[in-house]
Design a protein that fits this description.
2 strands; 5% strand; transmembrane; mainly alpha; membrane; transmembrane helix
């Protein structure tokens, strides 16, 4: 089979799996406002197309990372597709960092008189997913992986040119 056709089929595998997961999870992809129940009375509205894009990005990143690790970054096409999925995954983690900050519970208090009795009020910071340090460190590791993949693509490209 042609290697470009083979890579094209591998490129479509995460998309197919993401659509299947979306159909199973939401029972339909045509409902534009499905809800995910987080707890009693709290639900989250999710756009299924964004859900499909995020799952496709994560699955594609994992599949092509494993393929490149097993092949020792030998194929330029596979490494380029990994670089594409790594870039998309960096964008997804940026959105996760934004959601982490946006969905964090807001602390509040009520002050009754006399106001002079309060010395100092401490507000404890809380996050929806985790501390923002961890997604940023993960994003930095993705950037290092993208730079390494680009370096390997350049090395393989130079090797192919000198062999001809």
């Amino acid at each position: 089979m042609n290697k470009y056709l083979n890579e094209g089929l591998w490129f479509c595998v995460p998309i197919v799996f993401a659509v299947i997961i979306c159909i199973v999870w939401f029972k339909t992809i045509f409902d534009l406002n499905p809800y995910i129940n987080l707890s009693d009375g709290v639900s989250l509205s999710v756009n299924p197309y964004c859900f499909i894009a995020a799952i496709t990005t994560i699955l594609g990143f994992i599949i092509f990372l494993l393929r490149n690790l097993f092949n020792h970054f030998g194929s330029i096409v596979t490494a380029a597709i990994l670089l594409f999925y790594t870039t998309l995954f960096i964008l997804v983690t940026t959105y996760i960092i934004y959601l982490n900050k946006a969905l964090a519970p807001q602390e509040g208090w009520v002050i009754y008189p006399p106001l002079s009795a309060i010395e100092k009020i401490e507000v404890k910071e809380s996050f929806f997913i985790c501390s923002p340090v961890y997604p940023v460190l993960f994003q930095l590791s993705l950037i290092v992986l993208a730079a390494f993949t680009a370096f390997k693509i350049g090395g393989n490209h130079n090797r192919v040119k000198t062999c001809n």
